[in-house]
Amino acid sequence: MSDFILLTDSSADLGADMVRDLDIQVIPLSFSLAEHTYSNYPDNREMDPHVFYDRLRQGEMATTSAVNVAQYTETLEPLLQAGHDVLILAFSSGLSTTYNSSVIAVEELRAKYPERKLYTVDTLCASLGQGLLVWYAARERDRGRSIREVRDWVEEHKLNLCHQFTVDDLHFLKRGGRISAATAVVGSMLQIKPVLHVDDEGHLISIGKARGRHASLKALVDRMAETAIDAGSLRVFISHGDCLEDAQTVAEMVKKRFGVEDIYINYVGPVIGAHSGPGTVALFYIGTNR
Q: What does the pLDDT read at residue 173?
């Protein structure tokens, strides 16, 4: 097995059990509610996701903070000192400055530890899209690929990592500047649900709309039918904003339509959830293009 560390950040939305199974390390982003700041660890030690979403439902506003250079340095330096090489798979530069911070830290530490291999990749992914890319990277590592080979595999395939989202409350997209106030009001009245994806530049972009909740969930699966590669054998990840039943509905649609058996479901973490809100459902898989 290749001897290097895979490091990602908590916007990958991988649960503690998955982090352990993949044998990876996760650096937390942070979020703030009511002037208190919390670190977003995979085991949710500082706030349970259900509590977080309940507070959003009650009208509280959350803000988020990227991983900074100091955090990367504090995490990476002990690993390098211990003789480990490290591959970082970072949150999309189109949505966060986390990747930019990793670049600065890597440049500084390469100069200090020239004997070590240290790379960072802008995944251009978010939530369990990033998590699924990390899963594939761990699979390639476990097949014996070197750190450079895994890095190159991720760079080659990251734009095949498809992200399909829908949200239940348009007002969260309005607050984030994704839609206008008028669109949010009219859309809410008419039960219009947007369908979004993460594009090749790593930005969250609207690609359609559906009338009603069930139609929006089905639209995610319809999009998968258009773009998935060998859908029946794919690994599929689904994340949700405290709406597990809706995530399970999408999982059942995917299983019935494509024969997929291996589906991992977890929360949309606070970092993404602060901007997408309760009721978000997202579907991730490898496809021909995003």
A: 63
pTM: 0.94
Which residues are CB-contacts of 68 (< 8 A; sequence separation ≥ 6)? 101
Tokens of residue 80, six digits: 């390098």
CA distance 96 to 244: 26
How many Å from the N-terminal Cα to the C-terminal Cα in the chain? Answer: 31
Q: Which SS3 state, helix, strand or coil, does residue 265 take? A: strand
Q: Looking up tokens 């930019």, which residue turns up? A: 100
Which letter, b or e, does each residue of 193-209 get, where b requires 16 or more Cβ atoms within 10 Å of its Cβ?
bbbbbbbeebebeeeeb
Backbone torsions φ then ψ of 105, nearest 5 degrees: -65, -40
On whether the CB atoms of residues 255 and 263 are closer than 8 A, the answer is: yes
Judge whether 217 and 281 are in contact, CB under 8 Å: yes
Q: What is the pLDDT of residues 229-244, one digit of tens each?
A: 988 889 999 999 999 9
The winner for highest mean pLDDT among 72-81, 197-206, 228-237 is 72-81
**Secondary structure string (H, E, C) spanning 93-140:** CCCCCHHHHHHHHHHHHHHHCCCCCEEEEECCCCHHHHHHHHHHHHHH
Task: Please enumerate in sequence order all residues whose Cβ is within 8 A of that of 145, keeping only pairs 6 or more positions apart, or say none.
Answer: 2, 153
| CA nearest neighbour of 103 among 95, 91, 114 | 91
- Do the Cβ atoms of 146 and 117 come closer than 8 Å? no
In this predicted structure, the answer to whether residue 186 has a pLDDT above a threshold of 50 is no
Nearest Cα to 139, choosing from 24, 9, 260? 24
- The helix (run of H) or strand (run of E) holding residue 206 is strand 204-211
Question: Within 13 Å and on the Cβ side, how many CA atoms surround 243?
Answer: 24
Q: Which amino acid is at 4?
A: F
Indicate the Cα dihedral angle 49, 34, 12, 78, nearest 10°. -120
